[in-house]
Amino acid sequence: xxxxxxxxxxxxxxxxxxxxxxVVLIHGIMTxxxxxxxxxxxxxxxxxxxxxxxxNRFESWSSLETMWHQVLEIGLDVANxxxxxxxxxxxxxxxxxxxVARGIVQTFANVSxxxxxxxxxxxxxxxxAGFLHVIFPGLVKESAYELFYSRVGQHTSVGNYWKDPYHQxxxxxxxxxLPYINNHIQSAKSEDFKNNLLRLKRLVLIGGPDDQVITPWxxxxxxxxxxxxxxVEMRDQDIYQTDRIGLRxxxxxxxxxxxxxxxxNHFNWHMNxxxxxxxxLPYLD
Length: 285
Ligand SMILES: *[C@@H]1O[C@H](CO)[C@@H](O)[C@H](O)[C@H]1NC(C)=O
Ligand SMILES: *[C@@H]1O[C@H](CO)[C@@H](O)[C@H](O)[C@H]1NC(C)=O
Ligand SMILES: *[C@@H]1O[C@H](CO)[C@@H](O)[C@H](O)[C@H]1NC(C)=O
Ligand SMILES: *[C@@H]1O[C@H](CO)[C@@H](O)[C@H](O)[C@H]1NC(C)=O
Known about the structure:
Belongs to the palmitoyl-protein thioesterase family. This protein is α/β, with parallel strands linked by helices. Helix content is about 35%, strand content about 10%. α3 crosses α4 and α4 (about 95-105) packs across α9. The protein is globular and about 75 Å long. One 2-acetamido-2-deoxy-beta-D-glucopyranose binds near residues 83, 108 and 110.
C-alpha cells in the first residue's frame, strides 16, 4: 500500500469501527446551541466518529417558554434522532436544559437513551433569584412565589420549577411541571414517568458547591431544602426513599452516578474542558 495513504486508511478505519452512540446536547436558559459547542467539539475530538446533535430550539428569550412546550417540541426531534439510531443515544442537558432533558426521557417512550447526564440542572427545583435579576428585574426569592405561583407565572419555564420551601401548598396547586415529573403529584402519567426513567442505562447527576446559581446546589443531585433552609440530600428525600421516579432502583442497580465537583461556577460547567474530560466522556459509550 502507498505509505502516504496509511494515515487516511487508519482514520477511515477509526470512523468505521467507532461504536460511540450519538450524543444530543440541550443548552441552558437565555443561551443557545453555541454555548454547547465546546462540549460538542471535545466529544468529537476525544471520541472520534461520534455524531453530535446540538439542539438549537428555544434559544435566548424563547428559552423562557414553558417547560412542557420545550419538552414536547424538542422531544419530537430527539425521538426522530433516536429512531435513526436503534442502539440508543446519549443525552446531555446543561442547567435548565437538563430538566428539559429529564422531561423528555420520562415522557417519550420512543426515545431510547443509554446515558443521560444532567450538568448542573435544578432537578429538585430552584429557590434562588441570583441571575434571575437579568430576566425579572427586582425579583427577590422571598416574594417570587407571588409571581411564579399564578396562572401567568406558570407561563415561564422558571415558574415551572420554582420551588419555594415556605409555600409548598401554592407550589402544589400552581406548578404544572416539577411536581408532576417528580411524581410528587400523582397523575395518569406517573407510571410512565417512572418506567421511562428506569429504562436508562446510566443517570449521571453533576453539580457542585461553588455553582452559585442552582440553589440549593444540591438540587443538581435531587437534594433540596426541607420546610426551612436545611438541605436534605437525595437519599433522605421522599422521592428517593419511596422510589417515586426510580432514583432508588437506579442507584441500587449501580446505574446512578452522583458527581460533585468543587470550584466550578454555574457559567463554567459547559466551558471547562476538564469537566468534559473527567465528568462527561467516561460515561459516554
Ligand atoms: C427526521 O430527521 C430527518 C433526518 O435528519 C429529517 O429529514 C426529517 O425531516 C425529520 N423528521 C421530522 C418529523 O422532524
Ligand atoms: C414518538 O412518539 C410521539 C408520541 O409520544 C409521536 O408523536 C412521535 O411521532 C414519535 N416519533 C417517532 C420518530 O417515532
Ligand atoms: C429545619 O427543619 C428541620 C426538620 O424539618 C429541623 O430538624 C431543623 O432543626 C430546622 N432548622 C431550623 C434552623 O429551623
Ligand atoms: C474546571 O474544572 C475543574 C475540575 O475538573 C476545577 O477544579 C476548576 O476550578 C474549573 N475551572 C473553572 C474556571 O471553572
